[in-house]
Every structure is written in structure tokens, then in C-alpha cells.
Amino acid sequence: MKPPKIPFMPLLLKDITFIHEGNKTFQDNLVNFQKLHMIADIVRLIRHCQSDQLGNEVVGSDNPEVRASVHHLHIIDNQQTLFQLSHKLEPRA
């Protein structure tokens, strides 16, 4: 079983917000299609992650393999630890 692609939604929502707020929807009474294309690219990425293009079958919550994977997830909810791990993986330039 391949692990699913799970998009990091806060980052994608931030990107959509910056695209929306940083670009006019209309320029000279014309639709700004570049802005719409940027938003569509992000929506397309989300839809790609939701689809079954990787050959993963859709499994129910009663699947023991899924339950075992979820049961063994290590969750880090300490913001300082997450910050340190982030800088360890991608140090500031």
C-alpha cells in the first residue's frame, strides 16, 4: 500500500489568499486570467491529491492496514519543536 498524498492545506490556502489579495480580478475592465490560472493550478493540485492516480485503492476505515498506519503515526504538536525541525530541514540562507 502506497502512502497517500496529503496536501498541507494551510500553505495552499495561504497561497490562494495571496494570489487573490495581491492580484486584481479585473484589469482595464478585462478579466485577469493570469490570476485565475494561478488559483486553478492550486485547485488542480488539491484535486490531484484527492484522486486515485497513484493506483491506491480506496479503502474503508475497517481496513486493518489503515488502522495500523494511523495508530502508529507520530504527531508533534509542540510549535517550538516543529519550528526547530523545520529549520533543521531547511536552514535559513
Automatic annotation (TrEMBL):
<dbReference type="GO" id="GO:0007265">
    <property type="term" value="P:Ras protein signal transduction"/>
</dbReference>
<dbReference type="InterPro" id="IPR019804">
    <property type="entry name" value="Ras_G-nucl-exch_fac_CS"/>
</dbReference>
<dbReference type="Pfam" id="PF00617">
    <property type="entry name" value="RasGEF"/>
</dbReference>
<dbReference type="GO" id="GO:0005886">
    <property type="term" value="C:plasma membrane"/>
</dbReference>
<feature type="domain" description="Ras-GEF">
    <location>
        <begin position="1"/>
        <end position="92"/>
    </location>
</feature>
<dbReference type="InterPro" id="IPR001895">
    <property type="entry name" value="RASGEF_cat_dom"/>
</dbReference>
<keyword id="KW-0344">Guanine-nucleotide releasing factor</keyword>
<dbReference type="GO" id="GO:0005085">
    <property type="term" value="F:guanyl-nucleotide exchange factor activity"/>
</dbReference>
<protein>
    <recommendedName>
        <fullName>Ras-GEF domain-containing protein</fullName>
    </recommendedName>
</protein>
<dbReference type="InterPro" id="IPR036964">
    <property type="entry name" value="RASGEF_cat_dom_sf"/>
</dbReference>
<dbReference type="InterPro" id="IPR023578">
    <property type="entry name" value="Ras_GEF_dom_sf"/>
</dbReference>
<dbReference type="InterPro" id="IPR008937">
    <property type="entry name" value="Ras-like_GEF"/>
</dbReference>
